[in-house]
Amino acid sequence: RDVWLPAQRQLPYSHPYALDVFFHHVDRSGEAERGPAIRALYPGIVVAAAADWSGGQGISKWRGGGLSPAAGNGVITYDPASRRYCMYFHLSSVSLRVGDIVRAGDAIGRGGNSGMNARIKGHGEHVHIEIFDCGRDESLSAYELLAFLRR
Question: Quick one: which of 10, 4, 131, 127 has its CA closest to 72?
């Protein structure tokens, strides 16, 4: 596999409502990293996508683009059947545009370290994943995300 999941015992030291999935290998070009293909967890409609992030470590070095300065390049999809938004951040490239329809397992882009926090030395080599469940009106916890990805 190209990625590894954190151990459950590590989750209290990380994001409460997100999961960072780490890469075994990335290609580097200066500060930028290019990781493996990232695949959609759910089918859905692309509601946001950005591949134009530019900047460096910290807000003072952010130049523009991305879904936000911290998220960097990424994709957000919405699955009407499950009523869930899936968010994928820190990508090096994005292969989708707003309005595209994706199936679970489709490639959405490649891992990377875009975003001012992921660009910090030692903070890259991962994709940041969040899932918001509209039916529950809350994000899945890191524990739920880990269990979902281990299925």
Answer: 127
CA distance 40 to 116: 24
Query: Tens digits of per-residue pLDDT, 6-59?
Result: 777 777 777 889 999 888 888 888 888 899 999 999 999 999 999 999 988 888
Q: Nearest CA to 110 among 90, 128, 130, 86?
A: 90
Q: How far is CA 47 from CA 74, 85, 100, 129, in A?
A: 11, 9, 8, 16
Cβ atoms of residues 6 and 56 within 8 Å: no
> How large is the C-alpha radius of gyration of the chain?
14
Residue given tokens 């959609």 in the structure block: 40
Q: Which residue has the tokens 């890259």?
A: 124
Look-up of token digits 């919405």: 78
Query: At CA 78, angle to CA 73 and CA 82, rounded to 5?
Result: 140
